[in-house]
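Structure record:
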Amino acid sequence: MKKLALILSLLASCSVWAQGNVEAGKAKSQTCVACHGADGNSLLTNYPKLAGQHAKYLEKQLKELKLAMETGGKQGRNEPVMGAMAMPLSEEDMADLAAYYASLPISSNSTPENVVEAGKVLYTAGDAERGLTACIACHGPRGNGTELSGFPKISGQHADYIKLQLEKFRDGSRANDMNEMMRDVAKKLTDEDIDTLSKYVGGLH
């Protein structure tokens, strides 16, 4: 029992130590404003809202964007524009930026009425006949994901951005998902499925 308590204590202390500085992140975020908005809620729907996203996930993406640049796209997440932005960042910079954006509230979004029924089925049940895993298994009933597991918050995100990422997972041009889980799901999605899910998750608050 004492050993368990010690391990938990060490994990907690490591977690605190690893956290970025919100104020430092705010100061460093000025170059991000043009695409991601002054409050982390991008007005350009092809760019993601960063506000309210899990810090661990944001930090992972920044590291992998930089890695892709360093390896010529052979590793990490290959996005040339964001990769160039990530290149000069230190690990501390990434942690600070992640902490800052995680501290901000995501702006509201909604689900169009015409996709609610089909979207709910795909999101909560998947499709057993196609071997399609339900999104709820990893992203939760409200699309909030989980910090510890590394699954991102998708609720409230721009439909255009979600659609673009699902298409990239499907064609393999984005390949930084854990254990290829998203690629496995996306390759079973039709264009209609992707369009429906992209719009559905917006209103899962």
